[in-house]
Amino acid sequence: MVQKKTAKLEMLYSMKYFSSVSYISFLHSGISGYPYPLVYLLMLFHPYITFQIIHFFASSFFRMTNMLSIRDIAPNMKNWCCIVTVQEKQQVTDSMGTPTKKQKLIFYDSEGSRVEGIIFNADIPKMSPVLQVYRKYRISNADVRSIPPKFQTSDLTVQWVITAKTVIEEVNREEDIMPVKFTFTEFADLAQYMDDKSKSVDVLGVVISSLEKKTITKNSKQSNVQKFVLLNEQSQTVMLSLWDNFLNNERQILLNTIQAYPVVIGRRLKVNNYNGVSLSTWFDSALLVDPPIQEARELKNWAMRNTKLIASLIETKSYIKYNPELFLKADQKTTLICNVSLSQKTTLVKAKISFEHIFQKYWYMSCGKCNCATAADYDIEFTCNSCKQKSPVVPRCRFDVDLSDDSGVIPVSVFGDLAEKLLTFTALEAMDHFNQVILASCGC
Ligand SMILES: [Zn+2]
């Protein structure tokens, strides 16, 4: 009988204790706000001993999950935790030639170090709304990878892959000043980046006005665009075109807050040659509206102290006009006239203007929207064959001159505002003069 009892006990002890009944529960405790999983292993041991509860304290777990700063988190590292703020979110983009969709973000930490975040495909709708710009989060155990040089769009070389499994928790809401330093290009220095596909710029400006949203068909693909007017503290304006994806989110924020002078940081914008110098968004651009940085706060404050100036800029629409102040730089390289080639989009020459042909018309009838010539009569509304929009017919100033330097002579047409300025007549005056004098004298 005793033997039988001993055998039974031995059998029970030889069984793995842990395999009998166990459960693990992860509990949240409020200790310093950390998710603090307590591991309870409840084991049923032996019929003669009642229950024994063993607490596996979470200390071992936390020795592995380290609170680190961004620069200490290396590729492939596991068991880390980091508090970051979302500096910016890019638009969702397609990868060239693949069905992969991705969205990139930039995070920074209290030291001012930055890292790229990336979300792919089906994880985008799940995780993108979780991460809002300028908010602070505790992120742990995202996949850490190095970014291959050809995919680096900024100076960042490490990427955290955010998936639906990544643990993200928002930390307190109070807004800190971003410890991140941006390098902004002055409006007056933009001209040197014009039409250079390999270069983009970061700019800071206050949005004071917007133009109408337009739909443009280019290479049988429809695009939407809306222009916003940026102003800097030197009272210079430049137009920023927001394309497609930017019209969904950022556009609405700007339009909703336009009375309060929203300050934007445009990142990785393209500089175009359109009516002088203009800016436009690009696939990897980002717009930071009212970012918590010192310069932005100062600019907003400046705008609020200069409401009269801003009101007059909006009223006179002076930003629509060509601004030679931004376009021409004293140190810009000029081309000799004999070297001017037609394939160049823009050329700067230093030349004498001569006016051989005095008997010119000095104006043409144009579409009020796109400046295209039309045979329609003055002041009627017509549908333009070029821009397909309904617009008024207006005279536009235009005349031809010769430009000459020591190397040669080239004929040039002068249009619009610049032509009116040189001529000291408006297009309307030129048209009236033409109709009264020229037509009368030839008896038409
Ligand atoms: Zn037109």
What does this structure look like?
There is one protein chain. The strands form four sheets. Strands 3, 4, 5, 6, 7, 8, 9, 10 and 11 form a nine-stranded mixed β-sheet that branches. This protein has helices spanning 2-14, 59-64, 123-127, 250-257, 294-305, 307-316, 324-327, 416-423, 427-442; strands spanning 39-44, 51-56, 66-67, 80-89, 93-94, 101-108, 114-120, 136-140, 143-146, 158-161, 167-170, 201-218, 221-231, 237-243, 263-272, 278-280, 286-289, 352-354, 363-367, 381-383, 390-405, 408-415. It is of the alpha+beta class and 444 residues long. The protein folds into four domains: 2-62, no CATH class; 65-170, Nucleic acid-binding proteins (OB fold (Dihydrolipoamide Acetyltransferase, E2P), Beta Barrel), CATH 2.40.50.140; 187-322, Beta Barrel (OB fold (Dihydrolipoamide Acetyltransferase, E2P)); 333-442, no CATH class. A hairpin with a 2-residue loop joins strand 21 and strand 22 (408-415). It is 18% helix and 33% strand. The protein binds zinc ion. Residues 367, 369-370, 372, 384, 386-387, 389, 391 line the site of zinc ion (ZN). Keywords: DNA-binding. This is Replication protein A 70 kDa DNA-binding subunit B-like isoform X2.
